[in-house]
Amino acid sequence: MTVTFNQEGFAETSGEITVYCTDNQGIYSHSATEYVSEGGSLSVGSYLDAPPQPKQGFVIVRTDNSWQYQADHRGTYYNKETGEKVEYTALGELPENLTSLEPLAEPCKWNGSEWVKDEAKIAENFTKKQTQFIANIDEHAAKIYNTWTRFESEYRERQAAAEAFKSANYQGECSRYITDFAKRAGLNNQVATDLILVQAAGLEKLQVELANQRMRKYELKVPGLTIEKMQSIHDDIIKQMDALMEAYNNG
Predict the structure, then answer these.
(1) Cβ–Cβ < 8 Å for 79, 97
(2) Of 16, 43, 148, 210, most Cβ neighbours within 10 A?
């Protein structure tokens, strides 16, 4: 039995009927068989008239009580001004500021038809990174040096006392810098003196090597380096500085 509907859209008879359905955006999705009771109406989003045939690049939508084609460019795009990835979900023509072309891996800009290297930005990033690497090397060295020289005046006095006592052939008056150290270390004054001088020489050697490593920062200014190469040089300098600190801690 054919189901008929009155002008208000209510069924005059009961039965099954083929309907054409839309999703919550009004886009045609599928056809279905729907049972309608006498006096009832179609489900929301269901229509009696069939939509037109599909067309590439378009979706069929229900608008003004009829089926219409709308351009469908939904998908992943990139903002031409920022290179930012955008998920475009609207129907209709694609905005002019979006492109499906993925930006380059390095800093780039849109030239009107494609992405090209942004040489100014690349140079700016390089200089910024170079400055950061150099500052980090200086700060790392300063942190280590400050640890070594927290009691510098004490070290210098003890070293001077040890040098004087050794010059006197370990005879005569012995500074408390030596005797107190000898007592707490369980050593005699001569052995304590020699140990103080060895430690002083060792610290001086470490300080010289720390200075040498810090000055390697100028390797980062060699022409033709890449950011990756600068990173490698920076990391090696920090590694060598840490090794010096470990040597200091191990006595």
Answers:
(1) yes
(2) 210
